[in-house]
Amino acid sequence: MDDELSINIASAALICGFFALWEVLCLLLGVSDLILPRPSDIVATLIDRFPVLWPHILQTLYTTLVGFALGVGIGVAIGVLIGVSRIAYGVAYPLLVGFSSIPKVAVVPIFVLWFGSGTTPAILTAMVICVFPIVVNIATGLATTEPELEDVLKSLGASRRQILWNVGLPRTMPYFFASLKVAITLSFVGAVLSETVASNRGIGNVMMSASSNFDVSLVFAGLMILAALGVALYVVFSMLERRVTGWATRKNDFAVT
Amino acid sequence: MTVQRPIDAAQPGVDAVTTRAPKAVKLENVSVVFGRGEKAVTALAPTTLDLEKGAFLALVGPSGCGKSTILKLVSNLLAPSSGVVIVGGKEAKAKALKVGMAFQNPTMLPWLSIERNVMLPLKIVPPYCHRFRAERKGEFRDRVHALLDKVGLTGFGDHFPWQLSGGMLQRASLCRALIHEPDLLLLDEPFGALDQFTREELWAILQDLYLDRRPSVILVTHDLREAGFLASRICVMSPRPGKIISDRAVDIPRPRDIGLIYQPAFVEMTQELRALIAQVRK
């Protein structure tokens, strides 16, 4: 416990130190606001412009979470489909790798072409960018389930569905949560990417128009917001992960239910 | 510890070992071949074997002789390459009998507490599965704890598998094989990895549990004393490709006391089995 506390303190100190160093270096070297604003400037801008920024934050959060939810749904479905069958795993994998290799920035114009600018392409971009890690992790988790564990249920006469439900899926949970933490941050990237290219709402759009107005501190304020949102959602899923998959990490404080 | 009973004081009908008794399991010319063509490996040569209802059969033989293969056939984890496996009057895949199985490794599901692990068969096997939701915190829970008490795991229901030692996990594994009161109990070297004292303790526990409900049992083991102490019948298998080369009854009345294994007649029996296996290994 003491170890954990000291790690947390050190981690907080590192973050504070980073911003302090940034502030000090900007002051000492006399860096212009137009090149790199100081953290204190950025925070001031953030507070100052918050009423204007707030709807954009909600918009980005909305497109990210909807895209993420769709991505998780589709990713789990595809992952289960190809994970339960060795043949499907082999057959579908090359296609999946092909899709995942496409730079997602390239699909935004296509979505805009199909659905116009605004919310829809942002949601879709957030979705496609986060599907692949989820599919791969679910499929891998299922495909690597120990046959001995499945035998326990088979010997009892369990159906394939019961085996999936009682062994395959619980066994896959650590893989699933590992992919969720990657997927949620990727969803942010996807949503902001699409907003930057084709939207008049959202943090991506705010940063775009701010940079064309040379409002550099607002651009950085946008980055800060994105980083903060990313960290917040990451923490949410980490906490959920610890509750659901504590058995895999063997924490001593893992709640005995 | 001394046992008063002489070893061959067989009481008629003690273990119901008669050829007329109804059969729990029947293997008719069953063989298992893995792979095809030149790479084919015969795991089990054509074998015929039957198990009377309520009998305790031990399968012994050198490692790799197909002992576990027979268990996998009976529990329908494996399909025979030829022949038929009849369990409870129907083909093995029909699951006509309630089967409980304990494996060489305890194979507890790591995300479930011991209580939930032991309860697993009640979630899968009818008729219990229909009442699982309603009873898992009531009657079923009490049943699990009663069984855990019997094997000396009182108070460990809430623990997770990684918090228990190997011996404790094997005890839990035995509970899981028995919780749904199976008609047929399949034990695949369940005590192989344990120390002598724990093993002997678990033999006695297993005998008590057997006498309680009298399921039909197939025990795969390479421990001849274990086979002699527990079984009412011992089948010896040859090395790969395995087949049964000796089939003998053990007419020692139950309940048997652990001191039995040091009696001259018992030692003589295990020596005979040992000589037989040593001979076929060459």
Automatic annotation (TrEMBL), chain A:
The keyword Nucleotide-binding does not apply. PROSITE patterns: ABC_TM1. The chain crosses the membrane at residues 12-31, 61-84, 91-116, 122-144, 175-194, 214-237. It comes from the Bacteria. GO terms for cellular component: plasma membrane. It is a multi-pass membrane protein. It is found in: Cell membrane. Keywords: Cell membrane, Membrane, Transmembrane, Transmembrane helix, Transport. Residues 57-237 form the ABC transmembrane type-1 domain. The keyword Coiled coil does not apply. InterPro entries: MetI-like, MetI-like_sf. GO terms for biological process: transmembrane transport. Its main location: membrane. Pfam families: BPD_transp_1. Belongs to the binding-protein-dependent transport system permease family. This is NitT/TauT family transport system permease protein.
TrEMBL record, chain B:
It comes from the Bacteria. PROSITE patterns: ABC_TRANSPORTER_1 (PS00211), ABC_TRANSPORTER_2 (PS50893). Belongs to the ABC transporter superfamily. This is NitT/TauT family transport system ATP-binding protein. The keyword ATP-binding applies. InterPro entries: AAA+_ATPase (IPR003593), ABC_transporter-like_ATP-bd (IPR003439), ABC_transporter-like_CS (IPR017871), ABC_transporter_ATP-bind (IPR050166), P-loop_NTPase (IPR027417). Coiled coil: none annotated. Residues 25-264 form the ABC transporter domain. Keywords: ATP-binding, Nucleotide-binding, Transport. CDD domains: ABC_NrtD_SsuB_transporters (cd03293). The keyword Nucleotide-binding applies. It comes from Rubrimonas cliftonensis. GO terms for molecular function: ATP binding; ATP hydrolysis activity.
